[in-house]
Amino acid sequence: MSEVQKTCPACRKPTAGYVPCPHCGADPSLRLGIRAAVILCVAALTLGSGYFFLHVSTLGPQPTLIASIDRWMDYAHVWIEGVVTSGPQVGKTSVSFDVQDESGKLGVDVYILPKNLKRANKIPSVGDMVLLFGQLRVYVGKVELRVSSADDFQLTRAQPVETSIRGLIDDWYRDKLLKHKRVTIKGTITDLRPLSSAKLYTLEDNRKNKVKLYVHNGLSNFENVLDLRVLQTIEVTAGVSAFGAELQLALSSYDDIKTVGAWLPADVAIENVDNTLVDNFVRVRGQIVFVEMAGKSGSLEAEKRYIWLKDNDNPPIWMWESVYKLFSEGTRKQLRRGAEVELVGRVSKYDGRLQIDFTGPQEPSPTPDNYDPPLVENVATIDNRLLNDFVRIEGKVVENSEVRRAGLPSDWEFTLRDNLGENVRIWTPNTIYERMPRPVVVGDNVRVVGRVIDGRTVGRRGILVRPGLDSDVVRVS
User: Fold this and answer.
1) Do residues 427 and 268 touch, judged by C-beta distance below 8 A?
2) Mean of the pLDDT values across residues 312-329?
3) Do the Cβ atoms of 272 and 310 come closer than 8 Å?
4) What's the alpha-carbon Rg for the chain, to the nearest Å?
5) From the CB of residue 9, how many other CB atoms can be counted at a distance below 10 Å?
6) Which residues 6+ apart lie within 8 Å of 319 measured at CB?
7) What predicted TM-score, i.e. pTM, was given to this entire model?
8) How far apart are CA 345 and CA 467, in angstroms?
9) Which contiguous run of DSSP H or E holds residue 81?
């Protein structure tokens, strides 16, 4: 044995040729060579990498819990999985909605043309399950996910559950088992409230159970809008959502609405509307003798419009100004004093007085004409006996009085003197005054058509004449 062989390669001590080493027990004949070790390591690494690749390729997306998102994840790209709980709000180039998982909720903006999403059957509805990949934006108290590719938007359509309006209401106030589900119900359209970006329809059954149906205006960006009209009975499939704590259905496509019938209003002469007709729908006809616009509290915006037919003793028909603005421009111009018109509404009672709640959407077809109330030559005869009557007066403005409103332009009270030297006060709320092309001033000769009111109803004293519209105050030479 050579000197090298007589030295242990492990402990470097002399072995005198003994194997294994008498000092450490190492057996040099069992040592692995460098080349073999390298080959073995490469083989192990190859097998491990292959296994890891197979594991990752079959694992699929790993969604992030919404509650785990914090401000350090702003601009991070993540997968999110959950149920759609509101929307859709549809723009020209994007669709927005809310998604909720077991831990929380966030807003989603999908920057894909809505018509392309429609073509791929990916317009989301409340109740649908979605798997999304996108970029997070984390704000104070708000988290959003932005999706920009159709490949990053997977949708599983929820199967609708058939129910009734009554069953839906009972579930909402009992178990909420249908919340964030898709349902199919039948109901009759009995009201419409236009919002800034949507329309809110009221659906009602034969027992006066009601539910709201939210329809975003943006649906018109990619599909034909149905001509939904008052008293149509429809069958609709929509998602069960909420506005605050209030039950609300959300429509994702006009394709989910089918007209199945209609209610017919009773034809009633306006003078025959009485307490027996309260809560019933009626169709009334007649000549418009006065139109009055009412402003919104704390704003110059008009809120309501009252229309009297034939006589001031008849119940007025009132409508939301937002509904009035749905009419064509021609109809709006013709819906004034003198026009013959047919209107449909629901009889109600407010503050002890009968009125008819105009139910939209419906487009009246007024026949234009002119009408002025009788001229009151001696304004001193305008007293309590004429309360709520419509009058026409002429004279000179001899005094004006500004009535300030906090944070808003002022109301104005004018004193008009007739040819007999008698005075009457004209009450002009800011809603009307600010719409006058040229407000009246002292010295103007004017003709005014208005309704006689008790000044206490507007915080003033005595008897006042209130014009209904800015066009009811006209300068005369």
Assistant:
1) no
2) 93
3) no
4) 38
5) 12
6) 304, 305, 307, 357, 358, 360
7) 0.79
8) 25
9) strand 77-90
pLDDT band at 14 (very low <50, low <70, confident <90, very high): confident
For the residues 64-92, what does the mean pLDDT come to?
A: 92
Is the per-residue pLDDT at 413 higher than 90? yes
Can you tell me the distance from the alpha carbon of 5 to that of 28, in angstroms, rounded to the nearest whole number?
9
Per-residue pLDDT tens digits for 105-117: 999 999 999 999 9
Burial of 45 (0-12, 13-18, 19+ CB in 10 A): exposed
Choice between 30 and 188, residue whose per-residue pLDDT is larger: 188
Q: What residues have CB less than 8 Å from 25, skipping those under 6 apart? A: none
Distance CA 286, CA 338 (A): 9
Structure-token match 């001193």, residue found = 380
Q: Considering Cα of 450, then 451, then 453, then 457, what sign does the dihedral take?
A: negative
Chain segment 279-306, per-residue pLDDT in tens: 999 999 999 999 999 998 888 999 999 9
What is the pLDDT at residue 30?
Answer: 59
With contact defined as beta carbons under 8 Å apart, do 138 and 159 qualify? no
Query: Distance between CA 98 and CA 107 in Å, rounded?
Result: 4
Amino acid at 17: G
Residue type, 333: K
pLDDT at 366 over 80: yes
Count the neighbouring beta carbons within 10 Å of the beta carbon of residue 154: 15
- Give the residue among 106, 132, 123 at the shortest CA–CA distance from 157: 123
Nearest to 298 by CA among 425, 415, 406: 406
What is the C-alpha to C-alpha distance for residues 434 and 411, in angstroms, rounded to an integer?
9
- Return the residue matching tokens 């083989």: 43
- Where do the H-state alpha helices sit in 97-142? 114-119
Give CA–CA dist 360/230, Å, rounded: 6
Please give the backbone phi and psi of residue 9, each rounded to the nearest 5 degrees, phi first: -70, -15
Q: How confident is the model at residue 236 (pLDDT cuts 50, 70, 90)?
A: very high
Residue 86 forms beta bridges with which residues? 98
Task: Choose among 449, 137, 142, 150: nearest CA to 308.
Answer: 449
